[in-house]
Amino acid sequence: MRLHPAPRDTSRMRRRVLHGAAASMLLASGIAHAEKLRATPANALGPFYPAQKPVDIDADLTRVAGRAGVAHGTILYVTGRVLDTGGRPQGGATLELWQANAFGRYIHPADSDASGPLDPDFQGYGTLRAGSDGQFRIKTIKPPPYSGRTPHIHFIVAGGRTRLTTQMFFEGEPRNERDGLYRHLAADDRRASTGRFIDRARGAEDGSVAVTWDIVLPG
């Protein structure tokens, strides 16, 4: 007598296939979730956003068009990328930045001589667009601490439908922990708001410093 093989339990096989597919989807979802970047947190606009923009508003704040001088202070290069939380470059994103000069004074009528003198060779405010790869480069001076604040630079960054107002801090600053706006941030948000010192690019001025800081837009 010829024996025929027992019929397959197709329902059991189907369950195994579905179980395997579901496990793969969960694993892929977990990996994607793990790779999400932490969004740069919003922070206060502050009282000294320029009431009137300077004529020269490029990404080099150390020189003012039409003047031969160079801004007082330590030259600082800020480089980084504008990304979304998925790590995708936000090409063409716009950045505005403003900060105090080397004496701790902003170019704003509400900031008086009590903060320090104005520096006619310091632009104080600039705008730029990120490249197609999301990269940006800024030349400015390292802002000093002033009453109640650790060194910081203000930013407004816009990409797509997202607009972020934030502040960049500097790693290792002793006044960070005493700054009310810095202390208000959670530990992960502090890291996301802090520029990390790196080696200067070739050709940078002697005595200059450089930080890298990626801006991750939420949403």
Produce a short descriptive summary.
With 219 residues, the protein is α/β, with parallel strands linked by helices. It is 16% helix and 25% strand.
Kindly describe this structure.
- The chain is of the alpha/beta class.
- The protein has a domain at 75-217: Sandwich (Protocatechuate 3,4-Dioxygenase, subunit A).
- The chain has helices at residues 10-34, 180-183, 187-192; strands at 75-84, 94-98, 125-129, 135-141, 153-159, 162-170, 194-198, 209-212, 215-217.
- Strands 1, 2, 3, 4, 5, 6, 7, 8 and 9 form a 9-stranded mixed β-sheet that branches.
- The longest helix is centred in the first third of the chain and has 25 residues, at 10-34.
- It is globular and about 45 Å long.
Tally of individual helices: 3
Global geometry: globular
Let me know the average pLDDT.
Answer: 89
CATH architecture of one domain: Sandwich
Identify the CATH homologous superfamily of one domain: Aromatic compound dioxygenase
Q: Give the total of beta strands.
A: 9
Rg from C-alpha positions?
25 Å
Q: Report the span from N to C terminus.
A: 70 Å
- The portion of residues assigned to helices is 10-25%
- Helix-and-strand structural type: alpha/beta
